[in-house]
Request: fold
Amino acid sequence: MAKSMKDNKAVQMLKAAEEGGYGVIGVVSYNLETITAVVRAAEKKRSPAQILLFPWALHYSPLLIHLAAAACATATVPIVLHMDHAQSEEEIVAASEYPFDSIMVDMSHYEKEENLEKTERITKFLHEKGIATEAEPGRINGGEDGVADTGDLEGLLTTQEEAERFVNTGIDFLAPAFGNVHGNYGGIENIKLDFKRVLWMRTALISGWMDRLESIRKATDGKAQLVLHGTNTFPDETMQGCIKGGMTRCNVNELVLFKYNKYIVENTGKVPLTELMGRGTDLIQEQIEYQMDIMGSSGKA
Ligand code: 13P
Reply:
């Protein structure tokens, strides 16, 4: 008998975000500095938050998972532990042995029907263990450190019908493909000299995305919460537009790590390691706090 997902911490957190009309930050974490920054920012802002690990953590060291789980267990505000982009059944089974509140069953590199079939079967397996699931109908293109690039695979926008079929499999969260990509939005960023046109295009594109998002939101109808991927270099108004469009967890990677990454490149070997870690953590924390205000989750814990 599958356990009720009502008591699941991730489900409770994202349902509250949906009802409250705010977003919860999901921070892709590779190290102690990022995990520490999430906890400090969440406690300072009295905001819910999520720590996202990629399956890479399973292969690198389970100690990273234990560290993240301890951070969630000891924080004075709700922090969820989520495994993001688990792309194979083996990794999902392995991850289910750890205290993840939710796991993304990312079968989007398979064809549509296979994605659906695997998602349904694995969702049942994870629900038996009380772990909530996220699925990706369609295909969000691109890649990032720890997630295989979709390479030659065609990006597929999520349709309303697909969203309905995925929700019917019992998933808890749905990651729509509505024009978002993982990693760099090279195009927009590169057209720096043509800013007006870019702005105009951006507005037009955003309204197109919102239409699709709106239809997907209708299909999920509160039965599954929407999750945003691919937020690299997102302007504040784009983030807030997506939350208005129904997004509950907003995954971030470079968006909160870019200052840290630059600092590490510039200072490694030049300052003591303790300073590198301390200042590095502060730089990530500042960006997370900023995004909590933008997403409207500050004070919601
Ligand atoms: P990017 O914005 O860098 O793609 O990372 C966030 C994300 O979507 C992780 O799943």
